[in-house]
Amino acid sequence: MPAGRVCEQWIGFSTDEIGRVSDRQKVRYLTNRYPLLELGMSRKDCQRWLAGRGWGDTVKSACIGCPFHGNRAWRDLRDNQPNEWADAVAFDAAIRHGGARGSGLRGTAYLHASRVPLDQAPIDRITRTERKDDQVDLFDVLAEQGDPDGCSPYGCRSGTPGSLPTESTSWRESA
Predict the structure, then answer these.
(1) Comparing C-alpha atoms, which of 66, 46, 145 is closest to residue 110?
(2) Is residue 45 scored above 60 in pLDDT?
(3) What φ, ψ does residue 32 adopt, rounded to 5°?
(4) Using CB atoms within 10 A of its CB, is residue 74 exposed (0-12), middle (13-18) or buried (19+)?
(5) Which tens digit of pLDDT belongs to each residue from 77-121?
(6) Which of 72, 87, 156, 159 lies closest to 119 in space, CA to CA?
(7) d(Cα 30, Cα 82) in Å, to the nearest integer?
(8) How many helices (H) and strands (E) does the chain have?
(9) How far from each other are the two terminal CA atoms of the chain, in whole angstroms?
């Protein structure tokens, strides 16, 4: 790299991944930039943005043997990608007593947080995070379907637009 030149590398970590961000500059000619963090965008925000532009659902990117997979990712791998599942199980067994280069570890390594072999891990258990992620966001529903008719915590919108009780009817009769 010629002296005085700098490469700006954009990394797509969202606000959910703040723990993966590093301030350390490993080489002088490279500057890291995190545009999603600058915009304050979470993974959910990114999904909304993409869906709003017709891109549909976007899967999370990760290595087959990522130790940060949750149970949902492991189930998906096992149920829908049997070859990749077999690779992950084999990798999990291979790291049991040493790193990729056979270097010693203090303790025993496992891919699943339960610290049991992957093919025996309790991946069918639904975690609290999965339950939270499965909850419907009202803003997503409204964006998809529009504002529904009916009552809300802030007032009733049902009935004929613009109709008000006449002087001859009381508020009890018009409700």
Answers:
(1) 66
(2) yes
(3) -85, 140
(4) buried
(5) 999 999 999 999 999 998 887 755 656 667 788 999 899 999 999
(6) 87
(7) 39
(8) 7, 4
(9) 75
